[in-house]
Amino acid sequence: MTSNPFIMTNAAKAVIDPEAMVHNIQVMRRKASNSKVMTVVKSDGYGHGLVSVATTLAPYSDAFGVARIEEALTLRQAGIHLPIVLLEGFYEADELPLLVEHQLTATVHCDEQVTMLTNASLSEPLPVWLKVDSGMHRLGFEPDQVPDALSALTACDNVAPDIGFLSHFGCADEMDNPITQAQIDTFTQVTEGLPGERSLAASSGTLFWPQSHFDWVRPGICLYGISSRIELTGEQLGLKPAMRLTSRVMAVRKLKAGEPVGYGARWRSERDTLIGVIAIGYGDGYPRLAPDGTPVWLNGREVPLAGRVSMDMITVDLGPDATDKVGDEAVLWGPELPVERVARLVDTIGYELVCQVTGRVPRQYLTTTSEQRAAG
Ligand SMILES: *Cc1c(COP(=O)(O)O)cnc(C)c1O
Predict the structure, then answer these.
(1) Res. 169 pLDDT band, cuts 50 70 90
(2) What is the Cα–Cα distance from 107 to 90, expressed in whole angstroms?
(3) Is 347 left (phi over 0), alpha (psi -120 to 50) or beta?
(4) Is the pLDDT of residue 372 over 90?
(5) Per-residue pLDDT averaged across 216-236, rounded?
(6) In angstroms, what is the span from residue 74 Cα to ligand 1's centroid?
(7) What residue owns the CA closest to ligand 1's atom 6?
(8) Based on CB atoms within 10 Å of each CB, which residue in 65, 147, 190, 329 is the most buried?
């Protein structure tokens, strides 16, 4: 799926499984079977490839959600005709004609945006979602500001009728946090009796807070088979990881007991062993902060990272009796090794690891069906 003509895919690549994504969106649809699904594909489809993800999931989606206008325009250019919602709306007034031209939907979260809309002269009215701050305190109108914002938007000729109401959770991944129910209550009260559609749940809301489903759910991370809760893996939620990040062993070296490996000589072997050098590093988005012992999947078992992650390589302890060879495939995360496990070891979340896979890593889309793969 890459346009770089020089890419050989002999080193790091991210193999993307569209069937896994289709499975995942069906899981999310079943969880919120009375709601429409806004498929969130911001940040290059969470690193999986914006256009490919959108093309795969369009038949199962009612709309797409993105963060930046460039992402929306890329989808339109690729022939995506579903509604596209800019989850953060627009930043400057001169974007507005482009939004109308490409039939995008804007979120309106602040007075400045209302003023820009009021002062614009657009060829057609823009569909909008009004963002309510139900308690996260990042974006949106405070509950007591909502009536004024709504009447300003309703009175504005540049705004299409049927204004929707959208809000976002701050803690929906924490099952015992009372903030989430308080947000649901606030959102319900603020929008009570108003005619527009309502949307509150992202992945965690869709999976764990059925009372938050309303008219639209907006799953992102779970579509890629990754858990929105740090203590669980996607597999434990019935999801299938869509990305398999792989590379190859590029050298196998003998190391004597006591000898160090890599920058800063961080790791030393306690025994004579074999070290595998794998062609992936932080230049590919593998996290530099991965500690010694971080698992890498190789030839049917986990081997531990040994030494600091370099820009283009990592080193793993293969053990003294290893038979691994140059050219063998290693999996950094994927169905064999949940990205959530690697994420926990580097104090982050699966979201960040998949989003930061860099541009030099080709995304290779599987095109065979599961039947063909099973047949070998
Ligand atoms: C990113 C985002 C989502 C999707 O969140 P996930 O946790 O990935 O499901 C939904 N809504 C908004 C407003 C977002 O910014």
Answers:
(1) very high
(2) 8
(3) left
(4) no
(5) 97
(6) 19
(7) 220
(8) 65
Q: Which two tokens stand for residue 69?
A: 């206008």
First CA to last CA distance, the chain:
23
Distance CA 311, CA 224 (A): 26
Please tell me the distance between residue 93's alpha carbon and the centre of ligand 1 in angstroms: 25
Q: 3-state class of 225 per DSSP?
A: coil
> Taking a C-beta distance cutoff of 8 angstroms, is the pair 5, 366 a contact?
no
DSSP string of 120-182?
Answer: ---SSPBPEEEEB-SS--SSSB-GGGHHHHHHHHHH-TTB-SS-EEE---SSTT-TT-HHHHH
Task: Give the amino acid at 149.
Answer: A
pLDDT in tens, 35-45: 999 999 999 99
**Quick one: pLDDT at residue 368?**
61
Give the tens place of pLDDT for each residue, 301-312: 999 999 999 999
Q: Ligand 1 site: residues with CB under 6 angstroms?
A: 40, 42, 87, 168, 202-203, 218-221, 228
Asked if residue 131 lies in contact with residue 109, where contact means CB atoms within 8 angstroms, the answer is yes
Catalytic residues: 42, 263
* Residue partners of 37: CB distance under 8 A and separation at least 6: 25, 28, 29, 60, 61, 62, 63, 216, 217, 218, 219
Q: Please give the radius of gyration of the chain, using alpha carbons only, rounded to the nearest integer.
A: 23
Residue 87 CA, closest ligand 1 atom number? 13
Amino acid at residue number 236: Q
Three-class DSSP category at 27: helix
What does the pLDDT read at residue 345? 98
CA of 218 to the centre of ligand 1 (A): 6
Of how many residues is the chain composed?
376
